[in-house]
Amino acid sequence: MSMSNHAGSREGGEPEVVPAAEAGRFRLLQMRPRDPEEAGRTATPLELFFDLVFVVAVSVAAVNLHHALTEAHIVEGLLVYAVIFFGIWWAWINSTWFATSFATDDWLYRLLTFVQMAGVLVLAAGVKPAFEERDFSLLIFSYVVMRVAMVTQWLRASRWAGESRRATQLYALGIAVAQVLWLLSLLLPEPVSFVAIGVLILVELAVPIVAERQGATPWHPHHLTERFGLFTLILLGESLLASANAVIVAIEEVDELGPLLWIATLALVVTCALWWIYFWSPHHRLITDYASSVRHGYAHYFVFAAAGALSAGIEVEIDVLTGTSALDPLIASFTVTVPIAVFVMGIWWIALRHQRDRVVNTVVPTAALLVLLDPVLPFPVAVSAIILTLVVVVLVARAPEEAHEHGRMEA
C-alpha cells in the first residue's frame, strides 16, 4: 500500500484510492495492515512523544510508591502500584501493538493518540487518591478514555484489515466490553471491587489472545522490540533523574555528604549496568510467532515496573539517611535490591537465556539472586553495584555472535 494514497468511497461502500494531489487535506488514509517485513521501520516522533507522556504517569506512581514505602505501608503500597502500573503498561502496550500493525499517521490517528495521552495524564492525577484513599475512580475513568480511543482505532482498521478483519473486530468488541465492566466495578463495595479489579485485569489480558486466534494481525519484530527498548531507556532515565533530584534535595538535610554521594554514585552505576544488560542481546530475533511475542510483551510488565520502582527505592534509602523513614534500614535496602533483581531476572528470561551461553545463563541469574540477598550483607546496595559491574564485564567478554558479526562488517 502506498502511504500517499487516501481513502474515499465508491458506490456500494467500497473504498476508493484517491491520489494525494487530488485529495482534500482532511482525507483519511486507508488503514491497511502494515508489512511485517517493511524495511527501515523505526519508531516515529509521535510514538516517542507518546512514550514520554506515559512516563509522566510512571513517575507519579513511583513518587507515591516512595511515600507509601517510607511510611512502612509496604504491602498496600506495592499492591496499589502494581494495579496502577498495569493500567499504564496495558494502555501503552496495546497502542504499541496496534501501531506496529496499522499505524497510518494521518490526522485522525494522531488525534486518537493524543486522546490516549490525555487519558494517561488524567490517570496520573488519580494516582495519589488511589494510594492514599484507595479511590480508583479517576484511574478507571481515565483508563476507559484511553481504551475507548483504542476501540475507535480497531474499528477503523477493520474496514481494510483483510484477513485480519475478524481479529480487529474482536479486539474492538473485547476492549469495549471490558470498559463497560470497569465502569460497573465502580458501583461495587470496596472489598468486592478489589476482587473485581483482579478479574478485569485477567479479562483485559485475555482479549488479545482470543482475538489473535481468530485472525492474526501483522507485527513487525524490529519495530516492536525497538519500542520496548526505547520505553525501557526512558524509564531508566526517569529513574536516574528522580534519584538525582532526591539527592540534591537531601544535601541540605544531612550532616555528612559522604553516604549521600555514595548512594548517588551507586544509583548511576546500577542504572548504567541495567541499561547494558538490557541492550546486550538483540531482541528482535526472539519473537518469531505470536506466542513468543506475547511472552516478550507480557514479561516486560515486570521489567517496566521494576525500572519505575527503582527510583522509589533510592529515595527510601535517602530517607533513611536523613532520618525521615519509618522503615528499618534492612527493609529499606530491599526497596532498592528487589527492583534491581526483578529487572535483571526479567531481562535474562526475556532475552539472555535464549543465547544458550552457559556462562551467561549461570552468571546473570546468580547475580540477580545475590543482589536480592544484598541487604543482609555488610554493605547493602554497594555490593549490588559491584555485582552488576561484574555481570557487565562478563557480558562484554561474551558478546553475542551477532555483535561479533556486526563488528567485523564495520571493520
Automatic annotation (TrEMBL):
Keywords in alphabetical order: Membrane, Transmembrane, Transmembrane helix
Q: Which residue windows are transmembrane per the record?
A: 48-66, 78-100, 107-127, 139-158, 170-188, 194-211, 231-251, 257-278, 298-318, 330-352, 359-376, 382-399
Is this entry keyworded ATP-binding?
no
Entry protein name: Low temperature requirement protein LtrA
What top-level branch of life does the organism fall under?
Answer: Bacteria
